Amino acid sequence: MKKFMIVLILGLLMSVSFGITLGAESGVRYDTFTISNGRFVPTQTAYMALTNRNEVYGEPLDRPNDIYIDKDNFVYIVSSNIDAKTGKIIKFSLESQDVTVLGEDFLVNPTGVYVDQNGFIYVADRGGGKAYKLDQTGVILQEYTKPDSPLFGNDQFQPKKIVTDNSDNVYILNNGSRGLAQFTQDNEFLGYFGTNSIQPSLRTVLQFIFFTKEQRENLYLLSPAEISNVAIDDRGLIHTVTLGEESTGVKRLNINGENLLGEVYNLPDLEDVYVGPIGNIYTITKSGFIYEYDIEGNLLFAFGGQDESNQIQGLFNVPSAIAVDKDYNLFVLDGSSNELQIFTPTEFADMVHYALFLYQDGLYAESRDPWLEVLKMNDMFDLAHKGLGNAYFSLGDYEAAMEEYYIAMDRDGYSDAFWEVRNDYLIDNVWIVLIFFFVFLIAYVINLKLRYSKYIFAPVKRGVRYLRNKSRILDECLYLFTYLKHPSDATYYIKRENKVGYLSATIILLIYFALYMIFIYSFGFLFNYRVIANINIVEEALKIFLPFVLFVFANYLIGSIREGEGRLKDIYVTTIFSLAPYFLSLPILVILSKGLTYNETFIISLIQFVSIFITVIYFFFMVKETHFYNVKETVASIFLSFCTMVLMLLGAFIVYILLNELFKLIIDLIMEVYYRA
Amino acid sequence: MLNIFKKILLVTSIGGVALTTATIISNEIDIDNEQPSYIESIKLDSSRYSRVDDLSVVDTELYIDIKSSDELIAENDKLRLYYDEDIISFKIENKDTNYVFATHIDRVSAGTYDSLLSGGLGIEYIQVTKGMNIVENVGITDIALTQEITQVENGIKVSLDLGGFCPTRTCKRNYEFYLEGLITLEQLMGFGYIELNMGFDFIVTLEEDGIRAEIPYESIREEKTDEILLSSLIVFPALGATKLDEIPGYMMIPDGAGALVRYEDNEGRYKSPYRAQFYGINYGLRDNFITVANYTLSMPIFGMVHGVNQNGLLGIVESGDYSSRLFMFQNGANNLDYNLVFPKFDIRKTFRQSFTTDNSSGTQRVVDTSSADIAMLYKVLDNDEANYVGMANKYKEYLKDKGILDSELNSQDIPLHLDYLMADSKNALLGKQTIEMSNTDDVLLMHEYFLLQGLSNFNIGLMGWNDGGYSGNLPSSVDFDGKLGSTRSFKNLIEELQKTSEVSLINSYVYAGEEADSISERGDIAKGIDRLRLQYQCTVCVYEDQSLLYPESTLRLGTKHFEDYMDLNVNVTFEMLGNTLFSYYDSGYYSREDSYSIYQEMMSLYDGKAGYLRPNAYAFEYMSSYYQAPMFNSQLKYFDDLVPVLQIVLMGEVPLFSDYLNFNSYGQEFLLQLIDFNVYPSFVLTMNPSSLLKDTDIEYIYTSEFDLWKDTVVEQYDFINDALKHVIGETLVSREVPVQGIVKNTYSNGVIIYINYTSTDKVYEGITIGAINYALGGDVQ
């Protein structure tokens, strides 16, 4: 999320610096973004800002607080007149010029409004400390007041927002940290619903460990993140937005109050949430950003922004509420400029919505054309690629589906499609596999009797021996395999007989690095979460070589004061040799990853685990044998070596900072002399 | 022969594929996107469209009188010019309509703005001894001054000597005592009296259809420059001012395509005035001046209409435009009840000179920003001319008289602008990797496809033709990237294209990318006035550094490459030349005017051989094409209408091309707007899919693939051409909005284009105009 903000700010800066070449003319004052491979990328304008109004058909908005649009395209806005300390509900139609004002006689500071399927209006009056159920003419049918129940606690009753579900439960947002207060239709308090939980962080754990009892008691005053707003969808599922949460700010709650949405892209200052015609979720933040998600929480569009000067159409000062009508028009209230801003979807957004509508209805094949049209407009629209992938999948065109899933980086979809493709391939080619298998089996059985394999392998072995005799370097490099077979003997020879030189060991190290680079580049898409384009060879080299070099030095230094036998060269060579299992497993992983799907993930995990496990063992025995330590000394040596590594890094860092300061000081001195002249 | 045969085969096979993909893609996906009536109505009423004019007649009670203190100083067939020396103010009387425009407001009630609006001039000055603080909006009527009036031809020269002024009420009270000799000057200064001790000449003359106001730079005299420095001069701040919604009409500012702010009572909703510098931001001198507009004021004009088709004024900044700002106060701004529009001319500006790298210590300094004479020309408009079309046409006439606009468009069909993106680059494991998007053969294939479709008039740009591709490598010498084709095949391509098209290579000479040819940091990258390099970092970009070049370097490179372009006989599209002007430091301070004069040398070298992206008015004289014509305005809340002022000015003179229609998300409605504004379509195309551009610096080109776009290009071009081919080379005579959502454009050859922005069919003047469609009327051949 931070990265997005940086991109946004940069975008703004760039448009200030070289406005002309960046992007296309959109006619609106914000850029629209969508997600492509986990990154925010620019896309066509999805919504155009139409107008800002402080009245509707002549009825002044005063300070508008909340807005709801019912299924018949009637808009309800609750607003308060701060001077007169009164409130009202403005109801108007989008189809005709009807406007009615309700509740002026009893509302004080209404901040929430909701209309149920039967047309009953629910209002949360924060100033009046009550919530109401009204009929369409504004007659009070029921009041919701502060419950006596001890469950409710000592909070004041200042209802902010209100909704009802299909079973006629009334949910009132009072103190967001506690969740939503659930009432029956008849003002009976049932309990709290959808309360956020406190996630233990490293900080809280440390506090819990180190704090005194008194301090700890104070700690429990920490409350869960506050729910800032609530909405309900057609199925009666409650949606909440929470302040201060980075990736779980938007939640869809089931009947137990559990979150059904996974992680979403959201900003932490969420102000309001609304559910649109096809279950699309719209949120707006205090900083004026509107995010639209599909029903599964995939981010479709992000746009908007803040304009404290109150001059720019489409940006907000302090947005307070958002609502969506059945034609996807957005209505946003701004509590500072006291305005209603209206946005209407562009053709592009209409196409995306239409494709989603078909797609969510399970009409995958039918959704293909609209998705293609969306992709024509923006080839980097991930969700369209995913939708198209699903369309192809349902049409049985698995290879095309794989391609689309690959572009969309939808690994689950890719895995499923790949399974099908592999399955087809295996069915088609099963006889080849079988023939190979039987040929091999027969050859093996015959070999058991006749031992003819030695005629094949002996010359190879002879050749290798010949080459080893010819080339000392090759001989030394191949000594690695001797080391792996007999680590302690090999260590002895390396130490005592200089079996392996620096050059050969370095060659092996470079081979490791090459294997590693091949691995990060070619590890199968399903298991490789790295962005290939972002791989930087210098960075990767640092990752491999720096810890290695640091360890060798640190271990040498520790060894020399703790009576270790190993010379620098011995440590260098044996450390490289001991890491072999891990690096040698990489090519196997690469090959396997090309043929496996998520169903067989455990194979990859197993190999990774085993290779690391073996490497750790080799590493341990490497230190032990090289320095001729006992187990206790080995553990101590490894531990101290790691500590020394950290200290070396710290030292280098401090020197760097000091030098940097010195350098800056000199520059500043020169600058001042120059500029004062 | 074989080659030709091959090509035909290829093109026809592509055509075949086109047919099949066309059935997949453009099979008219029918979406019900009909909007509720409320939405459609507010949409058409928004500042994205033009509104129905309020044609009511200005109440004669509100006409400004000529008083006894007004002295007639000049008269011609049409106008009378009066001067009131008490308040240094003028009145212009239109003899035909009896309407009077005054340069002050009588009985003004504007709080702190009273003095500024009650006279004809204002000044701003820098208090050198008080931390370079700038005192703004000091009205001439508040200043103790002496004036000497001399007659000049058709007008007068007023030599003003400004003594001092009282910023506070107590001071003003005591000033009387000072005049009576009761207190001394020192005592008066103790009450806040400021000694200005400066002066200048103010020359106002009557022109055939307006007046000219001048302040020669040479005439500016300052005595106490160690204490007080003149920073800005405000010319006629109250000219054409109206109160709330008393007078029907509007103000026009050339923001983007053009914006109107109607005289309506805003009930104080919009607290900040509109302000922006003519010709855009000065990157080299970042002062505290902030504009919220996102379009540049590319033409130095503004205007006001008092009663649509009744009376109006067009202001043209003739000189001093490189260092001037436009202010527009819609009523409510700064709590004034008046609607005002006027320019400020900046002589000097303050800036912060930082002494340390982290900007922690520094000082305010002053720099001269202009040494040009100040000259304003006001044209009086009446009757049919008293509207924004009249203003635009008046300015056009002015430019034609000066010889700035002198070409005329003439062709059978409108030109289609296609930019072929050939290559860009992204990070690779080691260094950068060139991404090929279209090679020379591809471009030829694409072009031949459009020829086969019957298109005949093109304007083609090649983008990323240079070594390394488009991003990060400009300015580039005229050296084609070998991966895209040999130099010979490039030459062949250009020759082939030139048979039906004007061809340009896109290059940049004002900013340099990281890997540009022959750029040295010391010699070429410009320093701002604060002596810091004008370099911008983009950490998420492939090429992190972007730098502005010294205008001298721009000229040096431009001159060096000129012959190469001429050898190829191609045009150049300049990316920032024409729309960027900045002050800089190069062992001395240089102003925007200095930049301009160097750029002008470059532009005149390429006269008629260059296209510009959204150029400012000073480049109009030299351009052969105008690219990325603005189609909107800054969408500020107090803007009421979007109007094509810029387009009307340039219509019929040079082809104006839109931004790439690939990125149009408004569908047919935007095409309609192109027809309405007389702007020609433009696309960016590549042979390879645009997803290859992911992770490049131009990933904002997210759709450009030829196969996806070829049918749309032809369809949309035909849609626009069928309307605009009837009015090539013509000018717009009138643009009316008879009912909401309907526009009637009448051209000089009698052709009328009716535009229907509404979602229902409309019948107007007996002509049926389909929903979101246009119809032709008048003298269509």
Give the termini distance of chain A in whole angstroms. 45 Å
The biggest sheet of chain A, with number of strands, parallel, antiparallel or mixed sense and barrel status, is:
4 strands, antiparallel
Give the averaged pLDDT of chain B, no decimals: 92
CATH superfamily of the domain at 47-174 and 265-345 in chain A: TolB, C-terminal domain
How much is the average pLDDT of chain A? 89
Question: In order across it, which strands form the biggest sheet of chain A?
Answer: 3-27-26-25
Can you offer a commentary on this structure?
The complex is a heterodimer of chains A (677) and B (781). Chain A is of the alpha+beta class and 677 residues long. Among the domains of chain A are: 47-174 and 265-345, Neuraminidase; 468-658, no CATH class. Chain A has 17 helices and 27 strands. In chain A, the strands form eight sheets. Chain A has a four-stranded antiparallel sheet with strand order 3-27-26-25. Chain A has a four-stranded antiparallel sheet with strand order 6-7-8-9, with no helix packed on it. In chain A, strands 10-11-12-13 form a four-stranded antiparallel sheet, with no helix packed on it. Chain B has two domains: 11-19 and 406-736, Glycosidases (TIM Barrel, Alpha-Beta Barrel), CATH 3.20.20.80; 64-401, Beta-galactosidase, Chain A, domain 5. Helix content of chain B is 21%, strand content 31%. Chain B is built from 14 helices and 44 strands. In chain B, α7 packs parallel to α8 and α10 packs parallel to α11 (592-605). Chain B starts with a helix and ends with a strand. Chains A and B meet through α1, β2, β3, β27 and α4 of A and α2 of B.
SSE layout:
The complex is a heterodimer of chains A (677) and B (781).
Chain A: H1 2-17, E1 32-36, E2 39-43, E3 47-53, E4 55-56, E5 59-60, E6 63-69, E7 74-81, E8 86-93, E9 99-102, E10 110-115, E11 121-125, E12 130-134, E13 140-144, E14 161-164, E15 170-173, E16 180-183, E17 189-193, H2 202-210, H3 213-219, E18 227-232, E19 238-242, E20 250-253, E21 270-275, E22 281-285, E23 289-293, E24 299-304, E25 319-324, E26 330-334, E27 339-345, H4 347-360, H5 368-377, H6 382-394, H7 398-408, H8 411-450, H9 453-470, H10 472-485, H11 487-497, H12 502-522, H13 537-561, H14 568-578, H15 580-595, H16 601-627, H17 631-676
Antiparallel strand pairs in A: 1-2, 3-27, 4-5, 6-7, 7-8, 8-9, 10-11, 11-12, 12-13, 14-15, 15-16, 16-17, 18-19, 19-20, 21-22, 22-23, 23-24, 25-26, 26-27
Helix pairs in contact in A: 4-5, 5-6, 6-7, 7-8, 9-10, 10-11, 10-12, 11-16, 12-14, 12-15, 13-14, 13-17, 14-16, 15-16, 16-17
Chain B: H1 2-25, H2 37-44, E1 71-75, E2 79-84, E3 89-94, E4 100-102, H3 114-117, E5 121-127, E6 133-139, E7 143-152, E8 155-165, H4 169-179, H5 185-190, E9 194-207, E10 210-215, E11 221-222, E12 228-235, E13 242-243, E14 249-253, E15 259-262, E16 274-277, E17 301-306, E18 311-319, E19 324-329, E20 338-346, E21 348-354, E22 362-368, E23 374-382, H6 388-401, E24 416-421, E25 423-427, E26 432-436, H7 440-452, E27 458-463, H8 487-498, E28 501-507, E29 511-513, H9 521-524, E30 535-537, E31 545-548, H10 551-568, E32 571-574, E33 584-585, E34 589-590, H11 592-605, E35 610-613, E36 623-627, E37 641-642, H12 645-650, H13 668-677, E38 682-685, H14 706-724, E39 732-736, E40 742-747, E41 751-756, E42 762-764, E43 767-769, E44 773-778
